[in-house]
User: Fold this.
Amino acid sequence: MKTKRKLLSIFLLMAVTLSLSFSEGNKETAKKKTQEITVITHRTDLVDNLFQEYVAEFNKIYPDIKVNYESITDYEGEIKIRMNTKQYGDLLMIPDTGFAISELPDFFEPLGTAKDMAAKYEFTTDKEFNGMVYGISSVGNAQGIIYNKEVFKKAGIKKIPATPEEFLDALKMIKSNTDAIPYYTNYAAAWPLGGQWEAQAPNVAGDAKWYTQKLPHTKAPWSEGQPYYVLSKLLWDMVSMELIEEDPTTTDWEACKGMIAKGEIASMVLGSWSIIQMQQAASSLGIDPGVIGYMPFPYTNADGHVYASVGSDKQFGINVHSENKEAARKYLDWFTEKSGFAQHESGISPVKGGAYPDALVAFGELGVKFIQNVPAMKGEETLLDDIDSEAEIGRWSESYRTRILEAAIGNRDESFDDIMTDLNTKWAKAMSTLGVK
Amino acid sequence: MKDLNYASQRRILIVTFLFVPIVLLCVFSFLPLGNMVYYSTLKWNGYSKNRLFVGFSNYIRLFSDPEYFSVFKVSLYYLAGSVLQLSLALLFATLLTFEMRAKNFFKGVLFFPYLLNGVAIAFIFLFFYKGDGTLDSILKAIGLGDLIQFWLRDVKIVNFSMVFTSIWRYIGFNFIVFLGAMQSIDKEIFEAADIDGANKWHKFIYIIMPSIKKIVELNLILAVTGAIQAFEIPYVMMHGANGTKTFVIQTVDTAFVNGKLGLASAMSVVLLIIIIIATIFQKQYFKHREGV
Amino acid sequence: MVISNRVSSNILTVLKYAIVILGALIATVPIVVVFLASFKTSPEFLDGNALQLPHSFINFQNYVKAFVDGRMIVGFFNTTLILTISLTGAIILGTMVAYVVNRFDFKLKKVILGAFLVATLIPSVTTQVATFQIINALGLFNTRLAAIILYMGTDIIAIYVFIQFISGISVSLDEAAMMEGASYLTIYTKIILPLVKPAIVTVMIIKGIAIYNDFYIPFLYMPKKSLQVVSISLFKFMGPFGSNWEIISAAIIITIIPTLVLFLFLQKYIYNGFTAGSVK
Assistant:
């Protein structure tokens, strides 16, 4: 008897465990009086501090909306796994890599018509599909190069370089006249060789239509004169001329902030979002944050202008399955208009008419022209992503740039031209597989 | 229950004891596996509402491009490493089974690295291998400064560095499993062997090894399949760059960077088949040896 | 003859200690870096060499920050809860499987054992998409039960460790009990379970640490803030564009302490657990 009871209790335990799980699941969906929203962010570093302050501020105006934050480290990978279900929060960042905008209506709530939204917000064309806008930018960035002004001065560089050749010359001067590492690749962290470089391409193109409308129809984007070729060649030259750190494989992203502040690093290709982080590193070391400078990508177009492309960081979207869309929208509007997040990040405000941050005001003084990519052509919204995915190149990831770097330090049996030819071949093959002209 | 005869008791017990474990196994291992096999026949990015059935074309693509399989070269490093790892774990476990001073201290210390998680390990070993880092400083301190290399930059060395990290991380696991298994050996057998004048080597060969053979076999199988599936250390430390890319890293990139979950699933299925074949071979080999 | 024997045995003893000491050094030295870093200030860390001693060993700022901002109290609470339930479950299930497989012969035995082995071999990276849908369909998303149930599934290592021990328990013990009229269930609870204690401790340690350190499952299946576990704390100081390594170092040390203490406490059960009393 005793043993029977024991066996029974084991099973009861199992049954209780299972039923408990269901009841908890039901609790989640039950309606509540005060609205509760879940915001999912990739900013793991801000979720427990700055964003909590924002929530407190927000609750002063809307005490009935409870805001819960969740953060994800590997945002792009994990959010897509969750998007197979309805469980991806109420307000979240719209994934970028490989997320086709034609899929927006399946996952996100339309926030307004293209016309209305464009009148009020910046960067509305990024997440626009069929005349509706599905995302609002969290903050905007410009693309260029971060550098240490003191090191450039000490090396005897008089003028901001405006071509790749001038930039390489400047790096050579830094190498011979100072102890600084002329260019720091951040190879070990990998991502600095991804999107940070990819986003420079429109600067070289100097054409707002190139990236979104012309590139999907370019058969060989890595042939001489093309933006990708120019960028790749600059990377190759810097590495093969030994203008980078001695050992790229042990670079340390966190340490690079202190190093550039102290003048141990002269330059890095990074978006304007990085300015504030480098300046903070300088301040914490007791160095004047003014040593951190930001320059446009050194490429002068045929029209004689240097361009700096301006674009949105990740954009907010509202889960189409959310039961609290209104509350989510209220928080989104408050975050966009009242939180002051753009200033905090020293970025460009997503609301039209906001002032540009100081570093970018200086661009204007240099005569740099700002450009913003236009939307893709109708019916071709996903084309660029499709070709990239089919070709397995991963332009926004570090993949082919780490390959260039490895070949340039002699770790691979291939030349610069070999890599360019291979990329062109893969791209052209993918285009023909997809039937693109 | 007492009233039941043992035969029917046995039947009930087998069914009831195995029921929950097998349900869990089916729901959380084999159901997802079945799904993965299904995904491998799709052209699908992993979340889109559009799933296109493409039959075997993912497999055809995989097998028509030898590039996809060239990364298995990297597995050879891990394979060699896991043999070393198991031998060392066995050595340490045996040494610490016999009498020794500060035995428990050494057991604790040797197991220590297993307490750390993957992020911590990547962080520790970046400092370990970097120029003027922990390793270089140690070599200089003991007068071996000439041996200093670019531990990660040099393509001829980088995979050895990865394998060393891997051994460092996982050896504690094998060590503790072996040590635990050795405790299941009856002490009287050792005492009897002592009376017969057996030395430690004899005890290892004739007592320890035969008693823990099953556990060693399983560890070997897991080590070999682990080598084929090597992932976390080269991924977290190197992102698979500089010639450290393994098949699983390639699969993850295919799924989440290139947005081809269908193709990535096909890769996983092929990987699983390779692993199962390798396991069957090993099992046969052990069986054959038993026969001899 | 006698002398040379003694010399060779001395050499062997020296060699034995040399090997173990070398192993111990290799195991600990890399961690020293983390320990040192946990006492450094941010500029000190960014500025200096990894092996440099911190200015002060009583700079507990990082620890305070890691503990408070990392919300480690919540983390420890959730981790303890999840760990206790899932380990208990895994041990009960694992010993049940091992007992049945070791003591009885039945048709599908090999198939079942093979199924557990294959399950361990499945590359889990690409099955996550399907697993997530299953957890969600069961209504377990954002509950502790998601993690508990995923960890509870017995793995082949645990089963083998238990089988190893159970096969070491003489069947004559079972038979003696049966003579007294004990049921199989009584044999399992009264004879087998107490005697596999060292195996239980071994499994508790290896599986417990794996669960304790895992961050993938908590991140994906229970992202709600109130459900945060200890291993997640490390990520609180890791942004998409930067990480505070000195605070992470402190968090690493904090997370190691409980496992180390528990390990030191439990290890004596592994090594001394198999006491006399069984008839061979």
About this structure: Residues 72-245 of chain B form a domain with the MetI-like fold fold (CATH 1.10.3720.10). The interface with chain A takes residues 1, 16, 20, 45-49, 126, 129-131, 133, 150-153, 155, 158, 238-239, 241-243, 253-254, 256-260 of chain B (CB under 8 Å).
